[in-house]
Amino acid sequence: MNGFRLLIVGVCSFAALTGFAQTPPAALAAWFHFRESRQTSYYRVEADLIPARAANARLDWVKAWPEYGSHSPVEFGSRVGLQLKPGTDLRALLKESPLTLSRVVATNLFILQAPDAMTALIEAQRLADQPQVLMSCPIRRQLQVRLHGPYSARPNDP
């Protein structure tokens, strides 16, 4: 009988110690802010969608939700739109950055290419904090409503 009590006490104390020894969970979402032509936008990216936390996978598109307004998600790609103040040197701004020049749209408007979508989010946020940047945001697309998707209209035929 004493052996059974010791076993029960040991199992209960082991369960209590391992329960208290767990590390607190990481933040459930990562927030990103970008400088766009009208205002600064904030987007929430789910933790399980962040490639650095999910088996180091390279994703071409990352799903995110705006902080205010629409409840429908957008997807961010691996390209960044960048508009600079006149006279700003692009090479000096991109020094030690993984972004490469993809296309020159105008004299101070550029499209930059990142290795993956998460890197584009991080770099667009970093560039948005620079005083010589007028606009810095990753290229995004809206998720499409498909004809046979969950948001399609029900058929009205009998």
Model description:
About 6% of the residues have low confidence. This protein is 22% helix and 33% strand. The chain has one domain. The N and C termini lie far apart (72 Å). The chain is flat, with a radius of gyration of 24 Å. Strands 1, 2, 3, 4, 5, 6 and 7 form a 7-stranded antiparallel beta sheet that branches. It is of the alpha+beta class. It has 3 helices and 7 strands; from the N terminus they run αββββαββαβ.
Indicate the topology.
Elements: H1 2-20, E1 29-35, E2 40-46, E3 62-66, E4 74-84, H2 90-93, E5 100-106, E6 109-113, H3 117-128, E7 133-142
Antiparallel strand pairs: 1-2, 2-3, 3-4, 4-6, 4-7, 5-6
Mean pLDDT, rounded to whole units? 76
Largest sheet: 7 strands, antiparallel
**What fraction of residues sit in β-strands?**
25-35%
3D shape: flat
Query: Structural class from helices and strands?
Result: alpha+beta
Q: Number of DSSP strands? A: 7
Q: Calculate Rg over CA atoms.
A: 24 Å
Number of helices: 3
The domain count comes to 1
Q: Detail the poorly predicted runs.
A: 19-28
Head-to-tail CA distance between termini: 72 Å
